[in-house]
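COMPLEX REQUEST
Ligand: thymidine-5'-phosphate
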Amino acid sequence: MEKTTQLYEGKAKKVFATEDPNLVIVSYKDDATAFDGAKKGTIEGKGSINNRMTNYLMQMLEKEGVPTHFVEELNDRETVVKKVSIVPLEVIIRNVSAGHFASRYGVEEGIVFDQPVLEFSYKNDDLHDPLLNTSHALALKLATKEEIDRIKELSFKVNDILKAFFLSIGIDLIDFKLEFGKTADGTIVLADEISPDTCRYWDSKTHEKLDKDRFRRDLGGVEDAYQEVMRRLMGK
Ligand code: TMP
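STATUS: Structure written out below.
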């Protein structure tokens, strides 16, 4: 499978067309941004880690019955995925208070919720991805009621699977962001990535942060944290 023309360049990935109109190739970059691109940097080796971690987790989810866009890993940074139209809703699942949940509602980080929290935000950089609920999403025609129900069901299922998996490698899955896409036949599939860029991982014992918060908050040891999660994952 060969790349043809570049279709899109985002903050962390590029997407290329292929000879097959139903398939595209994603190429993961080492570039890192935070706060809507206001903070910029590089995380050495991130592209390869995020590519391989995403593919490992997506294959695990597929086996458990979650449809994903994953097709084939080409090399360290590049993967063939199904061409989808991305539903412009970012789904955030939270198991423990952190980040914007803590700041928005004025609570400390680290409160363990009795049930996972599901949030939607409108995927729109110009508007800074505003928080919205199902009625807002329907009013804006971002998806149909059936699609939103399916996205919620799959998101909670992904949480159950990933939470248990990360616990088995000594990591508490605090929260994460998912994106879904629609294939040509209208099937909703999990798309984008699942990586330290899009999840909060805290070491179960020490509560040390093993994710992009080390970059966002200038905590140092960013590369080491990404490598540590990958090392534990590969040790499975
Ligand atoms: P938040 O607490 O900043 O809302 O982030 C919740 C989760 O979503 C966290 O695991 C990081 C992830 N996330 C992204 O993947 N992309 C984003 O643009 C933001 C703001 C958060």
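REMARKS: The longest strand covers residues 171-182. The domain at 6-82 is CATH 3.30.200.20 (Phosphorylase Kinase; domain 1).
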